[in-house]
Automatic annotation (TrEMBL):
Native organism: Nocardioides plantarum
Record's protein name: PLD phosphodiesterase domain-containing protein
Amino acid sequence: MLDPEDRHLLTDALRPPAGHAVDAALATTYTLDLHTLLLAPLAMAAYDHSEGDAATIDPATPVALLESIRRHAQHTVVLCQAAGIHVPPTYPRLAAFAEGIVAEVHPPPGGTFHPKIWLLRFIDVSGNHRHRFVCLSRNLTGDRSWDTVLVCDEDDDAAIIMDAAPLVTFAAEVLEMLVRPLDDAKQNLINDLFRTFAEARLSVPAPFTAAEVLALGTPSGGSWPLPTTALSWMVISPFLDVGALGRLPRADGRRVLLSRSDTLDRVGRAACRGAETLVLQPMADVADLDELLDADDGRARQAQGPPPRGLHAKVFCWDDGEAGHVLTGSANCTGAAFGANIELSVHLTGPRVTCGPDALLSDGKSGLLQLAQAYECAADEGVDDPAYATERRIESWHAAIAAERPALEVTQPGDSYDVSLRLELPADPHGLAAVTTVRPVGLYNAQPLPVGRTAIWRGLGLHALGPYVVLSTTVTLDGEDLTRECVALCDVEGAPADRLRRLLRDLLSRQQDLLRYLTLLLGDLGADDLLDRLASDDDDAGGGLGVGFGQWFDDLVLLEPLIRAAARDDDALARAHRLLEDLRGDDGELPALDAEFLELWQVVWEGRHA
């Protein structure tokens, strides 16, 4: 259990079973990275209805990413903490097509929205559903931390199952805390997901013999689940506090705390109650070679800094003599986690010999201990960390601003757009409004403006009319500036109704990009190879693909894929039709495609419906 060599990727957890595609998805996360958000639809689409390990979409191509977002954004909802979105180094154009995925949650005062789960529903070509529950300690970010993941797939033949109904109850109660309600289409989608998910038989992975959902901070949520006494226990948590440590079971056996060095120093030796205190070995946090090379060479990496590393897993493990217990999920060993936050974990039970603390720790050669080393707290008593407290205060301030539903009002005085911010500031007991600025996320070079004054940005393009703004607050602490930034969602009023269609036309304005997209939709990688070869020849000739091949080129590349797609009678032609309709201009014309291709397309499309 928790063998460092047994690693899993988040993308693997989102991958549909053989012969299935993602039909509906609801995710929760505390923090969110907009770049990582784009990878979730890609993981879903890469194996849509695939029967094996062969991907149906090559995830390395930009058109594959665009198609993945367009295909899955409409049935994906990601809930995150209000103002919990990281500031991206860039705002990619493709992100516009994922803007409707994210919804912010504003929990009750004093708490944060902290669960990290996925409720997934898959569908096969016959319309049959399968469900999957994923419980993580990892946020939807690009962090390289040590985290845990529990995956429970629906299995009608499973001998041991977990009741899925509490998951639906938890998610439904969270939806009551949204800053903005979901639109009708998304709400209906989620309601239908809840209807089928509640009846799913979620299998419990071996060697566990029972599993139970533990929700915290919601009306139907539970409370501190650990007993008052145990034979032994181990707690893995990047954050600790004295109050929660004092509630850990009395135990005569082994007691182990694995955390971060700064966290252990902050609580002090006395609060650890004689437990062994461990931290990860330095080598466990070393970046791999590829990442080091990227860090040396990438300007974007320099701008955003290296991805966070270190311990991020949250596990409570104890044994009562007969059984071993594991609590895994989002809850840290803190009073906030069990007294104010919205959290979700799973309590797993199994034989002590395979599920207790001894199994988790192993012998130091094959289990988690091979990554850990002893750590001695700096002092008996904990130390105050003013920076930590100040950062939490700023985060609460940003969340309060986001909960006020700021709005961006768009006007078009000429060819470009002007955007003004409408915001009613929340209560400001710490005087943070005077040191907080705001700017649209797509305007990297724009002057941030004071949040409490009239804020207008002029001369924006379509891409910059997105719903995100960057909040930045800087305070001086012991003579040094401390800055915290985040992205908050806004309502957007007055933007062109056809903004996404016009952005799509811009993205596919080059002939080779549109042809490559069509070959992907038609499911013909051979045609894509031909396109690459001809594009290379064209580039060598210096003429550019859009002008070098003449009117016969798109007919040549797409003729066979069209015929094969029609013969398969799957949904490939429907997806191509949807793309072409989305690309039509106000005059009904399509960009970058000649009349001969359109005539060919019309024959195939009408033949399909004959």
